[in-house]
Fold each of these.
Amino acid sequence: MSVDLSPITLAIFVPLFGAIMAFLLPRAASVIGLATLALTTGAVIWLARAVLTGGAVVLPLGGWGAPLGIDLRADGLSVAMLGLTCAVGFLVSVAALDSLKGAQQARQRQYFWPLWLLLLTGMNGVYLGTDIFNLYVMIEVIALAAVGLTVLSGSRAAVQAGLEYMYASILGALLFLMGVGFIYLQLGRLDFAGLTGAEPTGALIAALALMFVGLALKTALFPLHFWLPAAHANATAPASALLSGLVVKAALYIVLRLAQYMPFPSETLLTLVGLMGAGAVIWGGIQALRAERLKLLVAWSTVAQIGLIFVAFARAGEVGLPESWKAAALLILAHGIAKAAMFLAAGRIKDEIGHDVIRDLDRSPIRPTLAQFTFALAAISLIGLPPSLGFIGKWSLMEGAMAAGYWHWVAVTMAGTLMSVAYFSRVFAGFLRFDRVRAPVGEHQGWALADAAPLTLALAAIGLGLLAAPILGFIEIGYPFGVAP
Amino acid sequence: MSLAPFVTALALPLLLALALIWPQARSLVWRMMPFAPLPALALALLGDLPMHAQADWMILGLQFGLDEISRLFVIFTGLLWCAAGASARHWMRHDARATSFGVMFLMAQTGNLGLLLALDAASFYAFFAPMSFASYGLVLHSRTPQAQGAARLYIGFVVLGELALFAGLALAVAQAGSFHVADLRATALSDPAVALMMIGLCVKLGIMPLHFWLPPAHGAAPVPASAVLSGAMIKAGLFGMITLLPLGGVTYADHGTVMMAAGMVTIFAALLLGVQQTSPKAVLGYSSVSQMGILALGLGAGLMVPQAWVAILPVLVFLAAHHALAKGALFLGTGAFAAQTGPAAKLAVTLALLLPAFVLAGLPASSGALGKEALKTAFNAGSPVWLPWLTVALSLSGVATTLLMARYVAMIWLHPPGAPAKVTQEAVLLPFLALVGASLALPLVWVAVAGTLAAPISQAAPGALWPVALGVAMAAGVAIHAHAQRIGPAVFLAQITAPGRALALRADSILAAKRRAARRLAHAMPKAIGETAMRWRLGQTAIAGLIALTLLLEAGGSLRGEAAMPPAAQPGAAHPPGHMLPPYFEP
Amino acid sequence: MTPDLIYGLTGIAVFGIGLVGALCALDRLRRVLALKLCSVGAGFLLVVGAWRAPPGVPDPVPHALVITGIVVMVSATAVALALIRRLQTLEAEDER
Amino acid sequence: MMDAPLLPLFILLTSLLAAPVLFSLPERAARLRTGINLGMAGLKVALVAWLSLKVSQGVIYDLRFELLPGLEFKLQADPLAILFIALSAVLWLITTIYSVGYLEHGPHRARFFGFFSLCVAATVGIALSGNLFTFLLFYELLTLATYPLVIHRGTAEALRAGRIYLIYTLAGGLVLLLGTLGLWVLAGTTDFVPGGVLAYVVAVNPLAAQLLFVVLIGALGVKAALFPFHVWLPIAMVAPAPVSALLHAVAVVKAGAFGIMRVVYEVFGIETAQALGVTAPLAVLAGVTIIYGSLKAITQDDIKKRLAYSTVSQVSYITLGVALASPLAAVGALAHLIHQGLMKITMFMVAGNLAEGLGVKRVSQMDGVGRAMPGSMLAFTLAALGMIGLPPLAGFVSKWYLAQGGLEAGQAWVIELLLGSSLLNAIYFMPMLHRAWFRDAAPETTGAPGRPRIGWMLAVPPAATAALVLIAGGFANAPFSPLEWTRFIVAIEYQE
């Protein structure tokens, strides 16, 4: 069979190839990793141009179209997700170069690149796939790679958390698989196009619910979030950034896609989703307020933010769904960028100060100013202050909810915002307090190349808010799906 | 008309005040002190009436001008300031706080002259306020406990007066639709507007019951300051009423009644209070209050019967001038007396002091007696009901003043006021004598200065001797001891707010405890919930149950539904099934 | 009761048992085994899909899916077991 | 004359771009930093002067940039914007000089001036915002930029204050977001248009409009320190003097007050708001705040706290004037925006000088400071007398117009309110003046004898602002004075 040289195939196979190469040539792993990312990014840009000029691109892999073969399809939303993955991934890789350069991290270095590239393959596969079974395979690939990244540091806590993550992830995937099976039983088709317009029978909805629960488990939606804080808090900084910024988004993306094509959710189900999101917002906020360590706080904030994305999804009920996904997508992009920046910055702070106990941040005479600044910028986007992308996402969320008269979602969003202010301000206080230090405090300490990547990400998270209109325009390309040609 | 003369008249004292900040300029400024009011005096004496100039860009549209009335006020006020300045120059020569005094003195002077020149309400207020506030420094000058008490009382009344005046002016301007005083006078202002303005100005004038500040303040201030406070500045209240209220056009019967009643009370109550004072300057202060009561009678009559105002107004101006000069002389004389060392010199000064004292008391043919007689005549045009009372009151006021003067003369001997250690005796004597002269000559000079307005005075009867005689007789048999005291406003305020503060403290502590408890709970609760959930795997179990339920549903629906599914609904059936395989399963 | 129904219900039951175990068991190894059970249950269900009309001609797609699922599960099990071993080693080290 | 449609953007950028540069300068590059600070501040004053000239000639600047479909980032230079922007530009220059002097040897100067610059950028942005959405952007930026300034000292107390400040203002910002959304959903636009955009909504659904008004005013009331949202303001006094000066005079509270103006005049429209029956309660609330702030101020011994409560009281004059719905009161309110800024910044700078030069931080320590620091205290005196409302100082002019406005609107209680407030002002300011000028210094409180050393950079700024207080009052009727400009604006807002 012949594979056409298409940006779509490149986006999947270049990372796969890179992962294999990096595994085989551990000494050149970082070079291979960066080169792979550069190539992948190039492919995504190519793809983005194609999408921008010609609308959605469909590539029947191996020459057969749906419903028989595997179609790969790129529309605005998937390219946006690809772009997020590649851009954030690239910058995290740059940061990883620095944080993994020590001699004692040789082992980590050896495994980081293959795992990460495998992860990239999986995610790109998810964003380009149009077939729910393929999605299942890809989320399994992602799960394995992500677990590998979680336990990379080799500490007991990390391995424990990784194992917990593993269980959750596999179980989630299996639930998804079960749903896939039921759908096949019902419809005899697994491609998105085949799902469109299906009769929303009770059984189909139940299958969908199974898939949703599986995905919720993977994306750590309250109350299925139990694995996330430990996993994200104990991984190394670049791994946390990837996990929190990108990996959970893959499952979220599938939820969005399913919502687009499946005979979705009745109003009650959607309300349930929203309530789970609201629960996440509140519970994540409370736990973040209590967290004693910086990375744990950030991880709990991820729980809360993911909840917020689901609230955005449910913000205007069934009627508003054709618009609500845009708000959710904006929040996904915003959270991906900002959270990656925040985890990298938290890692930098931990590296410089030597610990990440929030209470004692102000006891250190060392103040990694730039990393702290980055953290604050990322927090601005996560809290949702203007003009960040997070703000725009929140704006769309609240606007839709308000227009539909769903005041409770507005209230939840506001409560979540206030809580995020409260827990992030705990951290700021640690940065900016000086009267508990005996030694003279030096400013501008700990400048490093590694600061550049998170800073870029954080600035992007804020600056992209100004480009919200074009971004929104872009992700709408190729929507609604319709039946593939 | 150009603005320049007015600006010059006001800028000179102001600039001198500012110049005092530089140590190098101080001696020059003190030498200039007596001449500071000269530009204003020159303007009043030499300028052609009526004068008017305006600067729209200043404050809220500044308008200056002089008419016949204000011209007279400027003349006697300026004269008094000249004399007080001359006296102050020597009085303050070795004073540690001379600079502070000088600045306040000149600021007050600027304000006093400025308000006489102002022709619009905002500017009037703009000059009235600095005058009042700067005087605070004059009253407080000695920093003794009495001075501090007096100053506190003074500032309290000033603020009260300013506020009332502000409110009254605001109402008045809103009603008249113009800032110009002529427009205010031409408008039938509402009762509250007039009442508020009257309160604001009566504070300055010391009409009872707004007089409390006056005697202590005049007693506490240094001699030159007392002279202008008592002579010049309290007349600002009178001038304000003359210039701002629609007197002579509109009837305000109630206001007039109150004013006259207050005036009568003032005349005699001040006597009763004044004769109990031991400080000679405080006695003089009460005498001022008493004299202002006379002016209040005139004002009240004018308010009540507008037609009478034409007759009353010139008399009031005359009385103001008369009181300014006589009282100024008395205050400066007190200083001159204190500065004398030998008993002979003291006696001589006392004799000189008797002249203005008798003028004030209304010795026949003196300005005091002429003024009162003229006022009686003017009252004839007023309310017939009040006329007899007014006449009697005016006559008896002579007795009252005589008694007060007697008390004063006694007190300067019994409780001689303090004087600076190294003051030049002649230098402080000279301004005093000049004012004595001016006071005696007033009836003669008035005709020349006031022109047509002097008519009622020149036609007035010389007056009777009996009130003065009676007063002297009574005074001779009187010996009274007195004491006066008050509590300060600060203490009062503290007492009022004490329960509130205690309550707030208590509420704070309760709140703090509650907050602590809430914080403990907020820390403990999530932890407990989280741990319980972790231990019992609540979430997971619930989810497992849910999913199991879904599976059962599915089992019920999907598996049974499968059999019912029509073959046509299976797209795969139409194609070779192998093609459904992913590529890597391809055979 | 048709065989496919029996087969399907068995699959669901097996999945359910595995699910409860995976979520509620505490022992690590048991949880892995429970996940395996889930996987088997899901496999059963997919195989039922191959039974569809006409009953005589098996649909190969579900078979392919099942095989893929098994492959995925095998690798996942391997990773899980490796992690468990690693964790045991670490715990043993900590205790010493 | 050259026409530059991007002029408002340039004005915004003068301080927005200065911020990153200042952040990145090393701590020791003091001279360069000062140069950039003063250069940019001076440039901004010049640009603002140019802009005001153009606007007074009738040019309207309008820059738009679409952020979301239909939702624009919009900068607009109208006379009302000029009023605020001129205040912030001039006072920024003055405060910058003061801050350079004040923090000469302090730590974290790079950070301080960076955020300082950002803070002014936010203020300028608020002034130039052409719609409520843009206003919201800068409003939040202002919160973020001022937080590091408030906690600049880095002590536990400062941190606590900072947290309270942050929670209040961000909660306010959140409610403003809610209000903006509500406006957007109800009216389909968030533009500021003289006469308002809500006439239709008010006619159709008055309840929603009333609710929206409450939400918006509540949100802006946090920054404008309306009772009971004023709590943060006195606590935020732990900040360094120039920060307090800026917070009180220009940036934060004024942003709130300015926002209230925009909302009442250009979102609702004064007539609509009046018809809706919401202005009267707002006026009453402002009145309560005025009295409450003054009463609290009396009991404070800490100089800065007393000034802070005084701000609570004084800023509500602006709200009061807006809410009275009469052109004259509006003139008073708008003029007070400037006048209060000038007076309060003077007082805070002098308070800073007292703390810096003499170690005097409490009213009870102020005995005799007038002799030790005559220049600064003279400035303070002018400002305090202005606050009380003595002519010809600036405060008198605004109070006068407020009183006239109250009468014009038929609300005579305003006069009583103003009287009460002036009385209370006198009660808490007079003792300070009395102590400063008429008491002899207690040696143990003022430290070493002799004249204190404060550099010209600390001495000149309060003198300059005090002079402005005098000029703004004394020449209130002159062209381009705040009062005149205010009349120009009111003519537009009342569409006369």
Amino acid sequence: MSVAFYPGCSLHGTGNDYAQSAHAVCQRLGLDLTELEGWTCCGSTPAHNTSALLSVALSAQNLRLASDQQRDSLVVACAACFNRLRSARHEMAHDEVLRGRVEHVLEAPAPLDVRVDHLLELLLDTYGLDALAARVRRPLTGLKVACYYGCLLVRPPEVMAFDDAEHPTSMDRVLAACGAETVDWPGKTECCGANLSLSRSDIVVSLVDRLLDQAKRAGADVVAVACPLCQANLDVRQTDVTAQTGHRYDLPAVYFTQLVGLALGAGADELGLDKSFVDSRPTLAGWLS
Amino acid sequence: MSPTTYLADSAQAVLTAILAAGQRVVAPVEQAGLLAFAHVEQAEQAQLIGQTRASAKELAFPRTQRLFGYRFGNPGVELLPGEEPPAPTVLFGVRPCDAAGLAILDGVFGAEPADAPYLARRARITVVGLSCDQPQAHCACTAVGLSPTATDGSDLLLTPLAEGVLVEVLTARGAALVDLLGEALRPGAADKAEVTARAEAAMAPRALPAGLADGLAAAFGEAAWADAAARCLGCGTCAFVCPTCHCFDVVDESNLRGGQRLRVWDACQFGLFTLHASGHNPRADQAARYRQRALHKFSYYPRAHGRPMCVGCGRCVNACPAGMDIFEVAATAAAGQG
Amino acid sequence: MARIGVFICHCGENIARNVDVDRVAEAAAQIPGVAHAESYRYMCSDPGQRKIREAIVAQGLTGIVVAACSPHMHENTFQNAVEGAGLNRYLCEMANLREHCSWVHSDREEATSKALELIAIMVEKVKRNQPLAPIRVPMTKRALVIGGGIAGIQAALDIANAGRDVVLVEREPSIGGHMAQLSETFPTLDCSQCIMTPRMVEVKNHPRIQLYTYAEVEAVDGYVGNFTVTIRRRARSVDESKCTGCGACTQRCPQKKIASEFDAGMGQRPAIFIPFAQAVPNLPVIDRTRCTMFLKGKCGLCAKACPAGCIDYEQTDTLVTEEVGAIVMATGFDVQPPTLYPEYGSDPDIINGLQFERLLSASGPTAGEPRRPSNGEVPRSVVFVACAGSRDPARGVPYCSSICCMYTAKHALLYKHKVHDGQAYVFYMDIRAAGKNYDAFVHRVIAEEGAQYLRGRVSRIYRDGDQLVVRGADTLSGTALTIRADLVVLATAVTPRPGSDALAQKLSVPYDAFGFASEAHPKLRPVETNTAGVFLAGTCQAPRDIPDTVAQAGGCAAKVLALFSADQLEREPVVSRVNEATCVACFDCERVCPFHAPEHRELRNRAGDLLRVVSHINEGVCAGCGLCVVTCRSHSIDLAGFSDEQTFAEIGALAPF
Amino acid sequence: MSTETLLTPSAPDTATWKPRLVAFVCNWCTYTGADLAGTSRTEYPANVRIVRLPCSGRIDPHFIIRAFEQGADGVLVSGCHPGDCHYTAGNYHARRKFMVLHALAEFLGIEPERLQFSWVSAAEGRKWADVVSDVVAGLLRVGPVQPTWGGAGELPVRSLSEPPRPVPEPLDVVGELRATAQRWLSDCRVDVFVGYGQGSLPGRLRPAFITSPDEVDQLVWNEHAVNNLATYLTRGLVKRHGRVGLLVKSCDARAVVGLLQERQIEREQVTLLGVPCIGVEVDGALAPKCHTCDSAWPALVDEVLSAEVPLTPVDGEGLAAEIAWVEKMSPAQRRAWWQAQFDRCLRCYACRAVCPLCYCSQCIADQSRPQWVSKSSDGRGNLAWNLVRAFHLAGRCVGCGECTRVCPSNIRLDLLNAKLAQVVRDEFGYVAGGDPDLPPPLTTYLLEDHEEFIR
């Protein structure tokens, strides 16, 4: 199977520690993570707030590129991009009229031959947990992780078809394979506030407060995420939370790839652990050789 | 009075002339890997070497023949005619054994009460025989008193010579055909004895024991038939490829509106052949059925007509799924009696 | 020679409008074999029927074609009419000129010629019809009831009280079923055990009821009126004939902490136990999977304790055979465990409705005081979640479990009665309270008892310290709710009892995708099944409440008694028959028959030597589907009424005039 | 009207032709559904004639064949939806039979429009009307049936087989074969031993029935040992002799499995001697069945002769390649191709006689009330016979190829058999002649059996 990696804008910006760690993991596992040549924006939230056709067409354009480059699958790390790409594919497959319009825009047939996979799916299904566990060099034994999936990875369930929408466990299983202890906590699919971070930071603060509180109560040492915006909200907003509520958490929000990379033996710099506001390195010191 | 023999360049040339004379011709052609009698329009279509899988009897005695039709009225039934016999046909390239078979059928169907549907077809057939110069492993015509160049049943007989063919005119119908052929035939004569001798020499020696007809009749009650027939599976292949077997069944096929009465081939090896409406079957097992076949061919018929009802074509031996050999069985049964 | 009469109905204008009935009658008279053809305005009316009867007698007709409406409408009518004139009722066929012709084709020319062809087809068929006589089979007037819950008990008592013997088989050590587990019943709040236990005792003491508990139906052979049932009596390890039910054994048992099935895991029992105080029969049973004697080979304390010496560790299962004529399936239901939704987690304080019943029951582990399983305290706040699995095609079952709305209301009420200052919340999708006085009951719970009803779903439940946090939506106010609760009661989905599908297979009763046994007709034959002589009572067929179950059980009893009211069974003669002369005994018929009608018949000569074994269709069982007929390669089987010859004749009439 | 048109349709006048559709429907669902179309006054084409039967499981493939014989342009078969059967499982069984029939019809080149299947429930009056309209529209598209069966004329003939392969040298097992037969007969383990003996024509072998240990020298073994001796098991052998010793190749042993499965023999009546076989000769070359045979060693046997079996890779496609070739033709070509073959059929029933699994004491082809198969050896009767033979062997034929070997008219019966074996394998996951304890595939069903061909 031939795959292409779709980083999306965030992974080249605020989330480049996600990209860094994803590459580190895949390199160590021997998974080819070559970027899709000529990729463009997936459309993100602005596009589908503006035009349904535009949002599908932007994603379709990237699928078209993948198809032209003879890729079977487009692997995505960002939950939002993943959601957009998979939704676009779903909508084209189920709405002939829309597909026709997209084809008109693309001036090419709808690229339904390319699958869209999340990085978690790549590890779970393509690589396999047993194989992953076999490559672990520094088991994360004793590290308690609250896996945070957020909304976009799993919803809407009939489109995303990703895990159990109400109680996903895929990230838990990947990290458990790395030796970590994942905690059962109620917040795993709650909203982090997403892009309200800029327009209504008060809402984000209250949501983040609740998430961190729940994670802390569940005994988590770190929160693991699979989305650059989730990471940003959970990480950056901790100072605001303290300022506005007096609650102090100091709970690092890390990408699951950073934890997997750690288990596979990658170093802090290679994984971009220096890039977050709440520094995870003290918590993870025990595993940073 | 026309001469009784002619010479021609080749059998093919004779066929070409017959076709040129506007005659409808049925001759051996190759179909799906086997030789069969079929309608030909060009001489090249005919395949004049080898033996057809089925005999030539089908033209005169078809597999299925409508005797008459009927239409139901309310009240009453209206009768409709039987089949329209096909146009006059030259049956070309018939081996002497097959031609002799037609002669036997003529006797059977021609005897009173004469069989009108058969005779209607037969009257439209001119048989052009073709002597055998390459007999096959199963050939046995000499065992039943025929030869590779025998004339029985043919209207004309062609015998390939070293150069050209000898054409023997055997009947008035043959002579009438010759009249249409013009220059293709040259009056002339040749001796076919050498051809006959050469062909007979190439045949596997097969002979039927003397006194077979009586020997078989005496062996009727022998238990040995059961052993002899053990491998016979009771299909109709032997009868259906045989030039002389002529048993048939009469069936009605009808619906609400009417129907037709058909004559279809039947075979004595089928269990159903002698099954009575009561459920009783006088030939209850294959041994009895096989005995019937052997005795009909080599005892009952010869006793009545002075010759076996077999022309030695050997098709039944060759085609039998189970390797039954009627010559072998008959000889063994008769000998066992003695 | 056939003399067929054709009778063409105008059906008022229904047929005559689009079909030229006079021309059809004229042409029909020309069909070979037709001796009489006429048309009339209403063939099904008395004068119409009289015309048929008169023509049969006057013309000596041998077969009748009534060209009118669908045979599903009036076949019986005309068969009766024909019979009235002395002709066998199966010598009458109908050509469907109305539903299949005049009502669906507006071109009068086309409809007329089609009508004539439809008649010709049936003329051809009826010429080959054979007079058939109803099949009579002897019958054992004794019923088997499978399942000793309220459905089975009611059916058994009704049948027995009408004077017929009943065999009642219960899988558990005691009869009583779920109803014995319940606290009080909606909407009247009768004490469930108070109304149930007398009926259980009545069963036990009834001279016409043979009771087998701790037993299962192993095999069912035979057919309506003539079933042979093999029952496996599982080893109780206790000699029933000697045991007095004193309970000394149960007190001495060292294993005391086994989750009690009767208490739905809310209470505990020893390894030798009587399921509950009012159990019928009041006999202990050893749970061999938990008993030290069976697990480790030593203990024997109960045997020592027993004053009557009836503990028997060596006892084995026994098989008994019973002959019965009818079977009532009443295997009941189960509720799903409270762990269907992972987002609700699995917490000791999240229980299902049945478990809450035990907490509310006076005979329950808490003597009727609701207490939290986690710490034994009285819950101050209880959240009830309706449809926790039902009506959820994505994750649970798509159907409505029918009883949850009502028992949840009852739970809220009983809880409020017992914990006056407690708060009860009910999350619901909508309230289905369709029974008598049910809606009033729910309103009473809301208005008078103060249960807080919240229309919405629960998204997540998680523990926070000592309490549970329930997050959900109130869609009426459009707000997200977070409720702290001490106890959560999930109204989980009602499912068929495990193993009821296997039993249904033994009984040749179809069942739906969820395992509920299928009735013969949802409206008109709701207690019958497609297997003659097998009836359905209670929740094995679909979720339902106690009054409906009792009514249905009574319906079953009536059906069984009606069946038993004749001396012999009479069946439609549309059955398969084997031509033994040509059957080659491959028994493919046996493999395909859904009803187990083909049997092995030995053909012997006069000396008694076995000649052959051939197939024989048991007419009492055959339902006349004809599957065997088509499967039989030698066509040694034919179906009366729809024979091969009849069908070929119909096809032969298809060619146009 | 001539007699032909009484029974066999003549070429219709295309100007006035209207398609004739015969619908075989079950009494409970589709018939009632059609009633509902009536009560709802849903108009549909008048071309349909309904034949009512109790269940779709009662709809015999012969009825469909006969309807075509009687001039139907199309046949519609309709019953209850899965799960709705009044008799619980009739439609599931029917679905399997029709799956096979559908594939057979397609393989013979009958246009799909002419043979249609649907599930119509008692509530689907609308659907009934739609289905009839749609099927009639399809028939209008394909036009009238051309009464071509029965007068095909010349057709291109192509030898379909893979390039002929040489027959390998036979394994030398004769000594052990004779010794074993002698031992079995001497020990009274068997009363007759059935093997091969020399035939009366050069290079031919034929079945030999040895009843005395003194006669075992008659037994031979070489590449001409073509007959499937298992056939004799149901031809009175056991009755006549008692315990039978039978020499079996791997293909023959599969037939024995079929007979056990269908309870035609008891295992203990037969003692099987397996002979390792690396190929037999038919028409001067390796038999087509041997191209794809992957087992020299027969299963199920009691004893087996020893031999060094050379490894010969199974690389041929065998009949699959020929099936693909046939399927590449257009339906019309396919039909003409088969028609030319069936026209040659003499109705000698040699195919039936040699088939180990054709063991009925009275074949339906021999029955006359009703007359299942026209006795006439013309297009009509021959088509029906060859269809019925193939259909009755669906899921049962073990591919021994005897029918084709013995056909005096070289009809490719093996292709029909192999095609249906493919269908049964692909659709029902079943290969005949494997496990004697499995039910034959047309006597069972799975809820999830495919039904894409059903509307």
